[in-house]
């Protein structure tokens, strides 16, 4: 019996192209980090455009809502009161996941629930001390959107038809 090696398929090729295009676009932007665009492009490159659109929609909605909620939390925390000790702040952040999950279910975004929570926590935990956490959250949304758009464009190219010619 021969052991067949896996082949590099079209999805792999499209993923590589999408990731490189995200890096290329990032090289023309100021003060950006391609990490979130690249992640979005990898996750949104699916076997076909229909699945890519489903993933892209869920990812975009989840990123926007999680980012906005993270910005609101940090803004309220800066304007109203800084939460100490850190463990108490972490308890509040954990409890904030309840309304976020509930909102996700209300909006029928069940597949995006985890990502919504991740984006919220990414904004509120890793950027709490930034001079402008609002800028980070906004950049996070823009970067993800770029990755999604690049992925959808690349995934809509009829590569199978190009191979036949």
Provide an overview of this structure.
The protein is 75% helix and 0% strand. With 165 residues, it is mainly alpha-helical. It has one domain (10-159). It is elongated, with a radius of gyration of 19 Å. The mean pLDDT is 89.
Keywords:
mainly alpha
Indicate the multimeric state.
single chain
What is the count of distinct domains?
1
Average pLDDT taken over every residue: 89
List the secondary-structure elements in sequence, H or E.
HHHHHHH
Indicate the topology:
Layout: H1 10-26, H2 35-44, H3 49-79, H4 86-106, H5 113-126, H6 133-156, H7 159-164
Helix pairs in contact: 1-2, 1-6, 2-6, 3-5, 3-6, 4-5
Question: Care to give the gist of this entry?
Answer:
By secondary structure, the chain is mainly α.
């Amino acid at each position: 019996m021969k052991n067949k090696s896996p082949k590099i398929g079209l999805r792999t090729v499209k993923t590589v192209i999408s990731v490189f295009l995200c890096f290329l676009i990032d090289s023309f932007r100021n003060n950006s980090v391609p990490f979130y665009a690249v992640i979005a492009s990898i996750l949104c490159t699916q076997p076909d455009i229909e699945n890519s659109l489903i993933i892209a929609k869920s990812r975009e909605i989840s990123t926007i809502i999680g980012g906005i909620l993270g910005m609101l939390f940090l803004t309220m925390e800066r304007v109203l009161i800084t939460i100490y000790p850190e463990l108490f702040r972490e308890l509040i952040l954990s409890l904030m996941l309840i309304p976020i999950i509930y909102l996700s279910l209300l909006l029928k975004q069940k597949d995006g629930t985890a990502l919504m929570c991740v984006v919220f926590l990414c904004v509120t935990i890793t950027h709490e001390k930034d001079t402008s956490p609002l800028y980070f959250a906004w950049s996070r949304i823009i970067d993800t959107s770029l990755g999604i758009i690049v992925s959808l464009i690349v995934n809509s190219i009829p590569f199978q038809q190009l191979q036949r010619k």
